Amino acid sequence: MKRSTRSFDAIASKLDHPVMIVTVSDGARRSGCLVGFGAQCSIDPARYFVWISKRNHTALVAEHAPVFGVHFPRIGDIELARLFGETTGDEVDKFARCQWSEGPEGVPVLAGVDWFPGEAIRHIDSGDHVGYLLDVLDGGSSKHADEPALTLQMVHEFDPGHDARAQPGATGRCPGFSTHHDRRRRQTT
Ligand SMILES: Cc1cc2nc3c(=O)[nH]c(=O)nc-3n(C[C@H](O)[C@H](O)[C@H](O)COP(=O)(O)O)c2cc1C
C-alpha cells in the first residue's frame, strides 16, 4: 500500500539537532561521512546509535570496522563538515584534505573536534540506512563541549555526496549485509 508521509516530512524538515562526522577504518581502508541520524539510546551502559546510508562509501568500510569515531563539529568546523558531507570517498581521499590521527583500532580521529570512540556491537538494516549500535569506550575528547554545536538546519543547503534514497530496482551498495558485527561482538542488548 502506498503511504503518504506528508505530515512526517513537514515535521522532520523543521527538526534541528547536532550533526556528527562518523569515521571508520577496517584496517585496510578509512572512510567517514556527515551524519544527521544519530542518538544516545542507553545511559548505563552508555550506548549510541548512528545510521549510515547503504549508498555511502562509509557503509562499505563500516561493515567491517570494530570501532567508530563519532565527532561533534562546532559552528567553526562547517568546512570540515562540508568535506565529509558533500564529497564521497568514491572520488576523493577526504583524509588527505584534513588533519587527523589514528585512534583505537585505527579509527581516524579528526584534529580539533570533540569525539568519542564506540565499539560496534550490533547493526540493524532499517531501510536505506544501516543502524550501528555503539558501546561507548573510554577516550575521545570534549574540549569544545561548551561551544555551540553545528546543527542540521545550519547545513541544510549542503549537497550530499550520495543520495540515500534507493533508486528503483536498486538494493543499495551492501545488499548482502553480513552479520559480521553480530557474530563477533557481545550480544548483551
Ligand atoms: C545534512 C546532512 C545529513 C546527512 N546525514 C547522513 C546520515 O545520517 N547518514 C549517512 O550515512 N549519510 C548522511 N548524509 C550524507 C553523507 O554525509 C554524504 O552523502 C557523504 O558525501 C557520503 O560520503 P561517503 O560516500 O564518503 O561515505 C548526510 C548529509 C547531509 C548534508
What report would you give on this structure?
With 189 residues, the protein is α+β, with helices and mostly antiparallel strands. It has a single domain (17-184), classed as Roll (Pnp Oxidase, Chain A), CATH 2.30.110.10. The protein is built from four helices and nine strands. The chain has a seven-stranded antiparallel beta sheet with strand order 2-1-5-8-9-4-3. The radius of gyration is 16 Å and the shape is globular. Residues 174-189 have low confidence and may be disordered. Bound molecules: flavin mononucleotide. Flavin mononucleotide (FMN) binds next to strand 2, strand 4, helix 2 and helix 3. The site of flavin mononucleotide has 26 residues, from strand 2, strand 4, helix 2 and helix 3.
Structural class: alpha+beta
What value does the Rg take, in angstroms? 16 Å
Number of domains: 1
Bound compounds, each kind once, are:
flavin mononucleotide
CATH architecture classification name? Roll
Name the helicity range: 10-25%
Helical segment tally?
A: 4
| DSSP strand content | 25-35%
The biggest sheet, with number of strands, parallel, antiparallel or mixed sense and barrel status, is: 7 strands, antiparallel
- The CATH C-level name is Mainly Beta
Which spans have pLDDT < 50 for at least 5 consecutive residues?
174-189
Q: Write down how many β-strands occur, each being a DSSP E stretch of 2 or more residues.
A: 9
Order of helices and strands: HEEEEHEHEEEEH
